[in-house]
Hints:
Layout: H1 20-28, H2 53-62, H3 75-78, H4 81-84, E1 90-94, H5 102-108, E2 113-118, H6 121-133, E3 143-147, H7 162-174, H8 200-209, E4 218-224, H9 235-244, E5 246-257, H10 262-265, E6 272-274, E7 277-279, E8 285-287, H11 291-300, E9 304-316, E10 323-334
Parallel strand pairs: 1-2, 1-4, 2-3, 4-5
Antiparallel strand pairs: 5-10, 6-7, 7-8, 9-10
Amino acid sequence: MEMCSSSEKEAEYHSSDFDWEELREEIEKLPSLSYHLSPHISASTSDSSLVEADSWRRFHRRHSTARFFKERRYLLKEFPELLSCHDSVKVLEVGCGNGSTVLPILRARESVVVYACDCSEEILEKAKEIVVTAKSITPKNRFVPFVLDFNNNEFPEWLFCTSCQSSSTSANNASSDNRHENEASVKSYQKVTDYAHENETSINSLFLEGNRCCVGGVDFVTLIFTLSAVPFCTMPSVIQKCSSVLKPGGLILFRDYGVYDMTMLRFAPVQKVGFREYFRSDGTLSYFFSLDITRDLFCAAGLIELELEYCCVRSVNRRNGKEMRRVWVHGKFQKPIV
């Protein structure tokens, strides 16, 4: 992938420690792992449609400490657009968990505002606590957490209402050269939050006080190890929802589990509920992406592929000395300007 500057060269080691094609050939030759390659589903495995937000709420309850999720410090190296973009940047973090992705984004620049959703109110409270106590961050009016099961519900109208989406599209169709003219009208969002326990009704009332209907859409949507947690059959609708709240020209920044990642190979046959789709023992779901499937999903939503590749990372388990080969998919997809 392209590096933004020489200072970011160190990020390279997080993307090409080994060749994915060589890993694929090795795995596909092993009879003991052949069930991962087959579309056959175990009859004893539960239907993936039974996955509910409750499983993730329980997961967050068990793993609520900051130690469980480390801050994703690589994020700005993998997605330098978050640093190089214009002022008053708005980011929507989908499935924010305890804030491991939010922290580096807020540290990146003072003008960034992060809207963060999760299905668990408890984990949002934990994320708020972590953000408030973090060093080098002034969180007031810059962190807007809200509860949402995005797999089953639409994003709230206060992010980008239907009327403003239509107006934005019309304006961009009329003249793509004037696509930044309306930005001044959506920069005033300082009243949005006291960044705790705000629900859609209270946030919406704050907008109405300022004679505004919504924040005018976001510049970036981050999907960081989030899409793999929803059933494959609902992924197209989730991506479409994410695209709907993006401004024209905005980006979806994607990172998730790739095919033949070490985690995938550890699943037993009875945990398989779909092709490259598995149930964990705690009831949560895990899907492993190929580049082709990722491309099809995002392009079907009308997005433009800017970057898409496997990130192959080799590390060693300190406790047992065993080598671990991790595979992730890195992608950037843009909403068309016209």
